[in-house]
Each structure stands twice: as C-alpha cells, then as structure tokens.
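Annex B.
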Amino acid sequence: MKRESFNQGWTYHKENKQEIQTVDLPHDAMIHETRNPESPGTHANAYFPGGVYIYEKTFEAPEQWREKTVSFEFEGVYKNSTVFINGKEAGGRPYGYVPFTVCADGLLNYGGKNTIRVVADNSKLPNSRWYSGGGIYRPVNLLVGNKTHIRWQGIKISTLSYAPAKIQVEVEASGGEITVEILYGNKVVAEGTGSSLVLEIPAAKLWSDDAPNRYQCRVTLKEDGRIVDEGTEDFGIRLVEWSGKGLFINGKETLLRGCCIHHDNGILGACTYAEAEERRVRILKESGYNAIRMSHHPASRSLLEACDRYGMYVMDETFDMWYNHKNKYDYASDFDEWYRKDMKAMVDQDFNHPSVIMYSIGNEVSEPYQERGVKLTKEMTEYLHSLDRNRAVTAGINLMIISLASKGKGIYKEEGGLREEKKDSGKKKQVSGSLFFNIMTSMIGTGMNRMANSRKADKVTSPCLDALDIAGYNYASGRYPLEGKQHPDRIVVGSETFPQDIAKNWKMVKKYPYLIGDFMWTGWDYIGEAAIGSWNYQGVSMRNVPYPWLLADVGAIDIIGTVGAQAKYASTVWGLEEKPYIGVRPVNHPGVRVSKAVWRGTNAMNSWAWKNCDGNKAEVEVYADAAKVELFVNGRSVGRKKIKEYKAMFKIRYKSGTITAVSYDGAGRETGRSELKSASGKTRIAAVPEEKTIKAGDIAFIDISIVGENGIVECNEDHKLNVTVKNGELLGFGSANPCTEEQFDSGEYTTYYGRALAAVRSKAAGELAVVVSGDHLPAVEVKVVVTK
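Glycosyl hydrolases family 2: predicted structure tokens.
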C-alpha cells in the first residue's frame, strides 16, 4: 500500500473550549496547557491538567479510491482514542502507546470532501506515573492500495543464521504473485518468489552495535502479470542468542551498556519527531551507551529507526501495569480486554528492526506473587514466542515489591493505586502507590539492592523469573553473585539500577557470564515524576514535591541533551574514556546543604566557570581508569589521590582560572590529563545550530548559552531570553531547570546553569533565521541553510 504523511492541516480544540487552532501533527495538547497546582495528576504528571482533545481534518477522496482500499495509520494517540469518518465511528484504541489503523472503506464520499475526527480522552487523572502528553502526539499516515495488496506490516524478515547468512522473508497479501528482492545499496544481492522463502545472502555485512549495516527488502505483488503493489522494509542481519554463558549477537558475546528512557522529548513535550528521536539516540550512543530500555511502554517507530541506524540495542516494553492499578485511571482498566492485541501491535511494529533484541512484558508489577500473576507471566511469554521466535522475553521485575505483596504489604491498591502514609501529626494522607514506593526507596536508599536476598523472597519470585527467557532485576544487584549457584540456568539482566552503582554492577557484569548487562535509571531526563532524582538546595524530597516542580531531574543527560557527570562516570567505568573527567558540583550555594535523591549519584558538571564564587567550597570529582589522579588549580597542585571505583573526590576552595586533572598508572607514569577554564570578560548570548544545513520541513536544534569573551559557558549567570524565528516555526524553547512556571511553547525562557535549547521547524527552502535576545544583552542571529 502507498503510505504518505497525513500530518498537515488539522484543526484542534479542547472539549468545552471555543478556541479552534490549526495544527500540524504530531501535536501534544497537554504541553500547551496551563499547569495547575491542583491538578489531580500532581507532580507525577508535572501538574499538567488533562482533558478531551478533539482533532479534525477535511480532505478530498478521489473517485478512483472507490476501487481501492483506504486506511489511516495512527502511530500513537494518548489516550482512549475514537476515530470518526464523516460522522461514523470507525475505530480507535484505549492504549496510548501502540500504532493502529482505521479502515475508511465504505465510509468515504468518493469524489468529494470528507472529514476525519479524532477524539483523545485524557481527562481522567491520574492515569500515568509520569508525564504522558495528550492527543495525537505521534504521526498519522494515509494508506491507499489496490484491493489486492500487501497487508499493513505484512512483510516480516527474520535472521536464521549468520555464517552463512540466511534470512526468512514472510509476506502477507490479499492475493497475487509475490517477488522478493534483497538489496544492499542499490544492488540486488538475493531474490526469490513466494509468500514464505529462505534466502542466503553472500558475503553478508552483519548488523551489530559496532557495525549497524542495513539491507533493504523489496517486495513486488503482481496480479495477472501486472504490478498492483510494492513494499520495502529496511532490516539488518543479526541473530540473537542467549544462555547461561551470556548474550550473543551473531556469535559474539555482547554486554549491554544500557539506560532506561521515557518517551517525551523535553521542550517538545511528548511529540514524536524523527529528528528529536535521532538526536537523542545519537547523543546517547556518543556517550557510550549501546542499549536502551523503553520505560515503560512500546517505543515510537522513529526511535527504533534511529536505533537501527546508530547501532543501539533496544529492550522494548509493553506495560507499566497489568490488571492491578498503579493509578486510579490507568491501563489496568483495559488490560484484560486489550493486552494481547497491544502486545501484538508492539511486535508487528518491532519485527524488522534489528535494534530490538528483547521484549519486556512489564515493569515492577506486583501480580506475580499470585498464582494468576504467575500464569499470566507464562502466558504472555509464550504468546510473544508465538509472534516472534527470534527475540528474548524479559520483564523489569522488582523482587522487593513482589516479596512485600506476598506478605500483604503491597504498595499498590486495587481500588485505584493509593496507599495511606502517616503524617508527622499522626493523621493519614493518601499518596499514590508510585509515590509511596519512591518515598520508601528514598528512605532505604541503595540498600534496596539487598532487600530480595532472602530465601523467602527468592521462593516467591522464582516462578515468575523462571518463566522468562531472561530475568530482569530492578534494584536487586545483591542477588547477582548468588544466582550462579542458586539458579544455574538463569540468565539475568539489570533491567533498572541506581546509576551510582555502575562501577560495582559492571564489575559483576564482567565477572558473571549469566549477567548480561545493566540499564541505569535513567539515561535522559524527562517531564513528570518530578524531583525523583533531584539534588537540590531547596530542601525538596519525594515527601515534599511542591508546584511548580516540572522535571524528574534524574538524567545522566539532561532534558536539553547536555551530557552530565553521571554519564561520563559510566563511560569511564566501561573503559571508553581516554582522559580523566573533571566534574564540579555547583559552588554557588555556599553553606546550603544539598538534598540528595537516591536515583542520582552526583550533580556535578564539567565546568570551572562559577562567576563571583571565589573562596566558596568546591567539591571536585575526577573519574579515571587509573591508579591515582592529581588535581591542579592555576598550576598549583592541591593533592594527589588514589582512584577508588574509578573516582576520586577533592574538597577545595574555588578560585577562577584553570583546573587540571592528571592521571597516573601504578608506576607513576602519566596516562592522561584534562582541564577546565573559567569564563572570562563580559558575558554574551551564544547561539549555535547543531545542523548547518537541513531540508525544508525538517527541525533544527539551536544550542543557546551565556558565555564569556573566551566562549566558555558561564554556569553562575542566567538570563531570561526570547527566541523569534524567520522562515520557520518555533516548536519549543527551554532549559533544564527542573522547577519553573515557564512554558516551553512561550518563546521565552530562562537559561539554567547558562544553557538552553530551541527546536525550530523550517518552512521552505532558503534560509532559516533564529534571533535570540533578552535581559539587556546584545541580540544574536543565527542562520541555517534550508534545501528543498
């Protein structure tokens, strides 16, 4: 079927609101709402209100469509969507994270005007433990084909072997004769006929994280010798195997350097733009990660395509809950009716993406303490095997949660995910199950890693874990050394871990063959679940997250893509850094105690630019794969220390100028050095496009900062800035400030530690101009060349 974008020229309004807007998709209606401290979603949803979001588009249906089949493909609508075509209900989906199609046959006015209407009901809150977004936040496509056609997602390619390289191609069509060609570049390297065939690829270039080579499968459908349909699918030749000896990609043992990520794109809200998804994957890959875990729902098509291109392994996940609610209005209400359909939707989308190596059937569910939950674990695993025999099935299992539930101390409640907590006054208040868990974890700290070490915990969790191909452990690293003897056939992955534990965890990953990798929480910051990872100077903890907290503030990489010390610590542990890394904790809060969340190991950043802070206490972290490190300030040594777990800490006084770290091996020989300089002179606005040339309609990202005359970002000077655009549209502008009332769609935002980011969509070929001004600083203009 012919597939084309159906994203332009929609109208949008919120139910019971008069204002009608013209919008292009994807569109996150929620990110444009006015946040409210009384929102029932509270800080989990970043205090955004919900609503019923209504979209309409008028289009022509040519007369020739009468003899064809026409469908609309929705890549994701949050949530409870209903689609109407010319006033008649045509389809929809309760779950907000899976693609679905709506057939328009028999509902169109052929040769005339038609109206498609989409209603997304996100009015009942809370329905998510993080910021979900709302509306048609992923793209929509029009599918038009002959009556005889290749079915939607009807081409599936599997790798059978890699030496020699053999693939299986299966095609679902409504009739006709099928021809299959495999291309590398523009050259046909294999071909055959039939709806199910095995092809050998000569001198095959395999796909892996180190070499993400891709082929194209071209399928031609003929009827009476005439071509009636064509379809193409990109794929990679890679075989996934797993055993107690490890995880193997094309026969090579592979360790997963992973992180968890949510679905939102920061300043763009929940909107899924291909450029934003690619940017995120690129930055993560450049930072040393080779794997991501989707948290906690199926990934977008654009994200998977980017992972295919960059060589990023993916654990794609189905649900955050099963039949028990974590929030009063969440997916648990629809689970029994829809979970198999939604699992199939995930598999059908993921099937040809070589990046996807594992499916996860859930995250931190408590149900497996019950017989019904164990049976469901087995049933879901077997169902995924029936849909796709080429990938492993896992789950993010929190052993402590299941163990507590088995004792009648479950943190989630059937009647709506609420649990009572005593206040200091002795009175009780209702808190969400998620919040209760986060508060409890904050109190226990990394000691949670040992909470499931008991024989009783092992006994109650083993039926669930043993039903999986690979047992995913959330915060249970204390069990890693035990499993080789207690469960010699079990394969384990750290599906969710504290980032500060990476040195200990990675040592065990390298030691135990059955432990195949680590996914830290979290690789990239996100909206909602506010302050879960915050190290702040306002005394905010999970017990007290007041409005207007916005971000989780937990990412190893912040919400605008700035790579932080937490990410660099991990890449040092992984052996990917040649030079020592210098991380400096903020020095502009003298005498104020920092409140530390357990989901963050540091708030240090790679900067020695702290204006007006001379004499303040400074905590400097140096990461290196070395024996010792020496630190110099303005050429004077302030000490030499042993490296422990790839880290050394120096407590000194800040003095502007230059700070240098020199690493040494055991014999005292220098192995590397790095330095940071302070910003100097009068500060100004700097704006740098990440892309010099883009195509019309594409998105450009503009890095904005406050810099000194030497071009160094000044961390202790922030300004409210304004962004305007010529020959383009400002999609979002903001900073990584976790607590603010500013909005990403206003065009006005204050930098945070000197940095901000703008996302701008070009309109037409020519020149895209972005002007940044504000706070009595000279305005700057940057230009991006836009081609057709």
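The chain has five domains: 2-146, 150-238, 255-569, 577-677, 684-787. The CA atoms of residues 340 and 622 lie 49 Å apart. Further annotation is deferred to the next reporting cycle.
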